[in-house]
Amino acid sequence: MKTVGRIVHVCGQRMLIVTVDAAQLPALYATVVDRRHRPVGRIVDLFGNVKSPYAAVLCHGRCEQPVGEKIFTRS
User: Fold this and answer.
1) Class of domain 2-73
2) How far apart are CA 50 and CA 63, in angstroms?
3) How far apart are CA 12 and CA 25, in angstroms?
4) According to the model, what pLDDT value does residue 75 have?
5) Could you count the other beta carbons within 10 Å of the beta carbon of residue 1?
6) pTM, full prediction
7) What ranges do the domains of the chain cover?
8) Which of 2, 17, 3, 6 shows the shortest CA–CA distance to 58?
9) Do 58 and 14 touch, CB atoms closer than 8 A?
10) In 17-41, which positions are buried (b, 16+ CB within 10 angstroms) versus exposed (e)?
């Protein structure tokens, strides 16, 4: 598993905003899981500054993850 980053904001009921390490950008449309390997959603957008980018994660259902939690991609 590779770390995507930490959740910084929940937008609505199905969108998470995550800070991403600029040196290890995740792939677009990669499946995202939590620390218990449960599927969360998919990365649908990478945006922001080149030095400190963000990722938008569209959750499969309602977003249950708290702000500050780390999320990961399967490799």
Assistant:
1) mainly beta
2) 27
3) 24
4) 64
5) 11
6) 0.91
7) 2-73
8) 17
9) yes
10) bbbbeeeeebeeebebbeeeeeebb
